[in-house]
Amino acid sequence: MKISGKILISLIVIAMISLGSKTKTETIDIHQLWEQCGLEQDISFDIFFKAITGSSHIENITNKDIITIIDFTKPSTEKRFFVVDLRNKRLLYKCLVAHGKNSGDNYAKDFSNKAESLKSSLGFYLAAETYSGEHGYSLKLDGLEKGINDNAQVREIVIHGADYVSEEFIKKYGRLGRSWGCPALPADISKEVIDKISGGSCLFIYADDSYYKENSVYLNRK
């Protein structure tokens, strides 16, 4: 059956309106979730939206009830590690987190996927299995973005506790201590947090980095 030009244009317009409505509805739903979780003072809606929409495209996340967000747009002197319970709509943890030594001083500005770079890597990760190693009780991270963080296991990028992640260290040095690329947590809370997010939940590390925003598959997937 031949379709006239006018009918074809009408169908395209209808499809575009339908897609636009879906996107608008999705934004409203996520904004409502953001408010219900009480995140207005802690996580910007833009970052939360990126975390939720990006993670929705990741098939191997087995625990979708919890998401962890690290906001590297904030300085190390502020709490920028957040664990959100999406099922019960509440913020579970909010604490300090260190970035890589070569990523910056108080702010993390430079990122790398290369071994021995001593830099943090951005993007989506799977919070995998726990183990006891050089830094005590730790959590392995599987980097899910090729060329951005997929060398995480080779680089031994893990979540662990560290004494240099504390208010006392900030008072003494004006910033947190820095890791070799690991998102290190306060020693007194690290085990509790690790046990909560391990075994298949999503971790999203974000910064206002042009390379990441342009090359992330999950951020740019519709």
Outline the structure in words:
The two termini are 31 Å apart. The protein has seven helices and eight strands. Residues 6-21 have low confidence and may be disordered. Helix content is 32%, strand content 22%. The protein is globular and about 45 Å long. Helix 1 packs across helix 2. It is α+β, with helices and mostly antiparallel strands and 222 residues long. It has helices spanning 5-36, 45-55, 152-155, 167-173, 190-197, 210-215, 217-220; strands spanning 66-71, 81-85, 90-95, 123-133, 136-143, 158-162, 185-186, 201-206. An eight-stranded mixed beta sheet has the order 3-2-1-8-4-5-6-7. The chain folds into two domains: 1-36; 43-220, Beta Barrel (L,D-transpeptidase catalytic domain-like).
Poorly predicted residue ranges: 6-21
Second-tier CATH architecture of the largest domain: Beta Barrel
CATH topology of the largest domain: L,D-transpeptidase catalytic domain-like
The structure class reads alpha+beta
Number of domains: 2
Q: What's the arrangement of secondary structure elements?
A:
Layout: H1 5-36, H2 45-55, E1 66-71, E2 81-85, E3 90-95, E4 123-133, E5 136-143, H3 152-155, E6 158-162, H4 167-173, E7 185-186, H5 190-197, E8 201-206, H6 210-215, H7 217-220
Helix pairs in contact: 1-2
